[in-house]
Amino acid sequence: MLAIRTRRRKAVALAAAAVLAGLAAPSLTATPATATSATTTTTTTSTALTTTAAGYDETYYKDAIGKTGDSLKSSLHTIISDQTRLSYSAVWDALKVTDQDPDNSGNVKLLYSGISRSKTLNGGNSGNWNREHVWAQSHGDFGTSAGPGTDLHHLRPEDVQVNSIRGNKDFDNGGSGFTNSGGSLTDSDSFEPRDAVKGDVARMILYMAVRYEGGDSWPDLEPNDAVTNGSVPLHGRLSVLKQWNDEDPPDAFEERRNQVIHDSYQHNRNPFVDHPEWVEAIW
């Protein structure tokens, strides 16, 4: 199974290179993390996409390879905590690059609804798209300050009204559709994203749980198996997120997004996009 997944990751990364090579992310002035040495040198996406995720095992992930459980989680935390932090205002422009519609360079692809919408329609009004925190801000009360509130690895563009419908609900299966749902469902206490991004959502939530462990003035974020988490720094439902990670492996869009964030913005990676099997190895 591991070999199959490795081949799939390589195939996906190569597909991303073929479809999206030549698209370069603009340089961005960002606020460096106070306790890291993250470089601010940017690299064009076309160059980066020629390197498969497996190519990072001997460099970026070298201290994590071969580990499992808490040891793997701790190693990954150390690795991905070396990052450049963005301001919340800078997230607007970054999302126009990380989430660009591969079929229309003037648009972004909205996460839950799957709608392609003009990059210029960002804002807070009906018909606009705004910045969705996949790990809900209230689950840890971290707001929009530079850190978890501005981490591109869990920030995605979404329709204003759809974003409001999701609110701060935990993730789980079940519910009913709604306007512009794109196949996503919701009920009184949970939200189920459309099938094409279920794995994306799982890997974003679990990235946050590894990146923010409570040691850098931010809450210790952890997944659990509840859908009633409210304002505590927990997010569920873990058993369902693990299922989604298995059923919806990383595709070309998600692989490219991870690469752009690494090369041009935060200079860190979501390890579960590169190695989705690490979800099971930790949880």
Overview of the molecule:
The chain has helices at 2-20, 45-48, 69-80, 88-98, 160-166, 198-211, 238-247, 252-265, 271-274, 278-282, and strands at 31-32, 84-85, 100-101, 104-109, 116-118, 129-133, 155-159, 170-171, 185-186, 190-192, 222-223, 234-235. By secondary structure, the protein is of the alpha+beta class. It has one domain. The strands form 5 sheets. The protein has a 3-stranded antiparallel beta sheet.
Amino- and carboxy-terminal Cα gap = 18 Å
Give the C-alpha Rg.
17 Å
Summed up, the domain count is 1
Task: Give the number of helices.
Answer: 10
What does the average pLDDT come to? 86
Helix content: 25-40%
Q: How would you spell out the order of helices and strands?
A: HEHHEHEEEEEHEEEHEEHHHH
In percent, how much strand structure appears in the residues? Answer: 5-15%
What is the structural class? alpha+beta
Oligomer class:
single chain
How would you describe this structure in keywords?
His-Me_finger_sf; hydrolase; 283 residues; three-stranded mixed β-sheet; 35% helix; 12 strands; disordered N terminus; alpha+beta
